[in-house]
Amino acid sequence: MYIVISGNRVVVLRYMEYLSRRPDRTYALAAYREAVLLARSGKQGWLMDVVIVLRALGLDIQLDELNTVTPDAIPTLQSRLRVCLMDAINGAIETGHKTYLLRDRWEPQMGSRPRQETMCLRHYLQVQTTAHRRALTRVILGCHLLAVERLAWTERYRRQVPHDERLCRFCRHAVETPEHAMLRCTGSQDLVEARTEYLAKVYLGRPDLPIASTITDSARYLQMLICDVPTIDLTASFAHRVLEIYGKAPMYIPAEYFVRS
Ligand SMILES: [Zn+2]
Question: What is the pTM assigned to this prediction?
């Protein structure tokens, strides 16, 4: 079952509203009433599934409440669920180890000041080149194959490597994070050339942006680049190039974490 948020609508609840508003003697309404009867008699069915999913999303609701809900009350239920979802998403972003690039970010607005948005269509999802869009999204969500994430996994013949020992495969001077790879590492000539070319284009288009080397918090600087709409295609293309360069070199794995049989 899918519960999809679209604007302020929760699709499965809107579907229930649609069914319950069908005229008498329609198959849709008859099927919905059968589903309610089934749920009331304690039998499993899609209404019970809805309750399970809603409760898993944090909404305090009982099956009886869902069974007896009137069409006019469903928008209120949608609003309650939306609040629960926002809280759950914000909580996950605040506490997740992969989500640091998503914290405290300001979403650019057309014709007004940036503001914090939990859910919206992000500008980086409109990058035209699919491979570039995917690469940047992976960086933002921590779903890339750089050592900081990859070595957090255990494998058949390797134990998990502690965070501070997941060192860059090129320079071995810092943890191999997206911000190190994209903005700091000088251990690969290809990487340095790609970064120099990228930043030159960024500075040309946005001369008001601070120079990368003057910022000590590289994760914060990367966040700023990701939030910049005019240069987002450049940033996505660069993210793709960086992951490509890293993907061609073997990852550095300290020998002591291999499991010998
Ligand atoms: Zn490095």
Answer: 0.79
